[in-house]
Amino acid sequence: xRIAGVMSGTSLDGIxxxxxxVRGRSVETIGFTSTTxxxxxxxxxxxxxxxxxxxxxxxxLNFQLGELYARAVASATKxxxxxxxxxxxxQTIYHEGRANTMQIGEAAVIAERCGVPVVSNFRVxxxxxxxxxxxxxxxxxxxxxxxxxxxxxxxxxxxxxxITVIPAGGAPEDVVAFDTGPGNMVIDALARExxxxxxxxxxxxxxxxxxxVDSALLDxxxxxxxxxxxxxKSAGRExxxxxxxxxxxxxxxxxRDLITTATVLTAATLAMGVGPxxxxxxxxxxxxxxxxxxxxxxxxxxxxxxxxxxxxTDHGINADAKxxxxxxxxxxxxxxxxxxxxxxxxxxxxxxxxxxxxx
Length: 359
Known about the structure:
Nucleotidyltransferase, domain 5; 2 domains; six-stranded mixed β-sheet
C-alpha cells in the first residue's frame, strides 16, 4: 500500500511529506518533500499555541492548514506518483500528556482535495487510555531498527529531543521511549531573535560556534526536575516556548552566548536521557533537523565518547523524513485496525488503535 505520511513538528519549519510503500512489515521510502511555512502561517500557529486565543482563530487556521497539507501531498504525489492513503499528524498547538492534546489541520479538507482517505488525530486515543499521547514514533523505530545482538537507541532531534531504546533482541513491550527535553526549538527561537528574523535556525551551528557557554546558567537549567523524572514523560512548547526564552534572556547574557548555552543544553539532556541505557554493544541512530547542526552532534559525541553514533540515513531512512515516514506507517496500522502505540513508551494502560479515519 502506498501512503503519504505528513508531519509538521514543534520546530514550525514546515510540512514534510514522505511517500512510503508498506508491504507487510517491509517499509520502503519512495520519496520525500519538504514545504516551508510562510512567515505569516508560522506567526499564526504561534499565535494560537499555548496561549489565550479565540476559537475563531483556531477554527480558521485548522482549515487553512488542511489546505496547506493537501497542497503538500499533491506536490509530493505529482513528483513520486499517487497514494491510496494519507497519514497526517497535524500541527500541535497544545499538549498536556495524560490529560489532553490538540493537533489542527482539518483531515476532511485533505481527503476532499486529495481524493483518498486520511488518518489523523493520532494522539488522543492513547491519552484516553491513560497514556502521554507521546511519543508514538517508537512503534516504527522498533520495526525499522531492532537488532538481535545490539541495543539500538533511536534519537530524534526535532523541536523536542526524544529517544527510543530498543534492547538487543527485545520484544515491543521491552521498548522504552520518552522526550529528553529541548531539541532545536530553543536554539531556533534565539537564532530568529539574534538575526532580527532573517534566520529560522542556527544553520550549521555557526552562531553557537562563535559564542561561549555560561556554566552557571547551564547548571541552573539542568537542575530542572524533568530531566530526572521517571519515564514515560513528554515535553513540548509548553515547557520550552516563549516563557522559557524569556527566562534565558532575563540572564542578561548576549544572545550569541545564549544560543551556545542552549546548544549544549540540548546535547547534555539528550546524553542524560541516553546514559542509563548504555550497557553492552549500543548504536545511537540520530534523525531530525538537529543532525545537521555540527555543534549539537559534536557536544553529543563528547558527552557519549564510547557510543557509536550514526544517522538514520546510514540505515536507509532519510534523517529528515523519518517522522513523516513514521506517520505513514502508523496510518497503515490504523487502516488495518491494528494497535500501534507502545504502552511501555507512552504509559497507556493497554495498546490501542490510533487515529481517526476520514473516508
